[in-house]
Every structure is written in structure tokens, then in C-alpha cells.
From TrEMBL:
One of its GO terms (molecular function) is imidazoleglycerol-phosphate synthase activity. It comes from Actinoplanes missouriensis (strain ATCC 14538 / DSM 43046 / CBS 188.64 / JCM 3121 / NBRC 102363 / NCIMB 12654 / NRRL B-3342 / UNCC 431). Residues 19-208 form the Glutamine amidotransferase domain. One of its GO terms (cellular component) is cytoplasm. Heterodimer of HisH and HisF. This is Imidazole glycerol phosphate synthase subunit HisH. It is found in: Cytoplasm. Its main location: cytoplasm. Coiled coil: none annotated. Transmembrane segments: none annotated. The gene is hisH.
Length: 221
């Protein structure tokens, strides 16, 4: 039992500490503001010790897959991300920060190695209109923790030309997969133990994105 404060009230529950990894890519300040809205203490940093010790780690990412992987490798952040996941410590990938969690990504016919924490490859969307840009709905499984409380008609903001599309492989690996459809379905959210990822931008998705971030922060140890 916690000790009462001088005012006679119980001490407040400590705020969750979240690090947004700065490796040279991502909407860092937008992500910082969006996560802070949940009540978490948020730090944007390239300090790997802080990234390893935080209650939650956010891996953002925009642009090319290969460029994001180059930034991760230059910082030597891959082992820290992998060790967190292996230890059951939450990691959230956003947009290309989601994509680099997979085995590989193929852009313009060139395959780049990813972090290998999720099975499969990220490939070009099989759609008439590329990129997939704007607001879209998603279909979440009943066991989704990140989208618990979703009414079903909320829209999230996407901007991408590539995605994880081998949905069966993710499900076979035990992941909970939320899909969106742009001509054909693709993985919009993946939840696999301590590892979570969103192809859309929660920080740009208004209250629907806040719901996801709130649920993620609420689940931090």
C-alpha cells in the first residue's frame, strides 16, 4: 500500500514514460504531442539507453524503407528494439516504422532487409491509385487491444504506397491483424505480444488515432 500524502490522499499513480526514437525519420514532434495527450511523459531522443529503459518505445518512420533502415543501422537501434520485444517490453511502430519491423521491404525492385520481428515482406500496393493517401476505415478483430472501443466507422489517416499484404502469414504467426482496403486488403494494425504497429498515422488521425495511442499507453507495464 502506498503511503498517504501530507494532504491525506494516496500518492498518484506514476505516469508512463514513453520514448519516441529519433533516428532521423518520422513526424517526431507530432508524435510527441499525440502521445503526450494520453497523459504519458514523452521524450524524443536518439539515446539508446533511454529507449531500452522506457515503459514504451515508439519507432516512427516516413519516406523510403531503405533510408529508414539505414538510419536504424547507423544508430545501431535494431538490437535495442529486438531485445525489448524479446523481453516483453512494448514497442509501437508507425508507418514506415511499422514496415521495417518485417523481414524485408521491396521498393522499385530492390529488396532491403528489415528487422525481422514480423514475418513477411512489405511490397507495393496492388491498387489502381498510388499512393493510398487520405482517410480510410479499418476492420479490427475482436481481440484487438489497440482498437478496443472502436465503433467501426472511425477513419484513420494513411499516406503510403507499400504495405504488408500477406495477411495469412501474420495470422499464422499468432498476430492480431486489423485490415484496411485500398482495392485489396492490407495490414493496417498488427499486434503481436509486446510488438504493435500501425500503417496509418495515429498522430494525424484525430480522435480515432488518440484512441489507439491511449489504449497502447494504458497497456504499458
Amino acid at each position: 500500500m502506498s503511503e498517504p500524502s501530507r494532504s491525506g490522499k494516496q500518492n498518484a499513480t506514476p505516469r508512463k514514460n514513453v520514448v519516441i526514437l529519433d533516428y532521423g525519420s518520422g513526424n517526431l514532434r507530432s508524435a510527441e504531442r499525440a502521445v503526450a495527450r494520453t497523459g504519458a511523459d514523452v521524450t524524443v531522443t536518439s539515446d539508446l539507453a533511454a529507449a531500452a529503459e522506457a515503459d514504451g518505445l515508439v519507432v516512427p518512420g516516413v519516406g523510403a524503407y531503405a533510408a529508414c533502415m539505414a538510419g536504424i543501422e547507423a544508430l545501431n537501434a535494431g538490437p535495442v528494439i529486438a531485445e525489448r520485444v524479446a523481453a516483453g517490453r512494448p514497442v509501437l511502430g508507425i508507418c514506415v516504422g511499422m514496415q521495417i519491423l518485417f523481414d524485408s521491404g521491396v521498393e522499385h525492385g530492390v529488396e532491403s532487409k528489415g528487422l525481422g520481428l514480423l514475418p513477411g515482406s512489405v511490397t507495393k500496393l496492388a491498387a489502381e491509385r498510388i499512393p493510398h493517401m487520405g482517410w480510410n476505415t479499418v476492420e479490427a478483430p475482436r481481440d484487438s487491444r489497440l482498437l478496443a472501443g472502436l465503433a467501426g466507422d472511425e477513419r484513420f489517416y494513411f499516406v503510403h504506397s507499400y504495405a504488408a499484404q500477406d495477411l495469412d502469414r501474420l495470422v499464422e504467426a499468432g498476430a492480431a491483424v486489423t485490415t484496411a482496403t485500398h482495392d485489396l486488403p492490407f495490414a493496417a494494425v498488427v499486434e503481436a505480444g509486446a510488438l504493435s504497429a500501425a500503417q496509418f498515422h495515429p498522430e494525424k488521425s484525430s480522435d480515432a488515432g488518440y484512441l489507439l495511442l491511449r489504449n497502447w499507453v494504458a497497456g504499458l507495464g
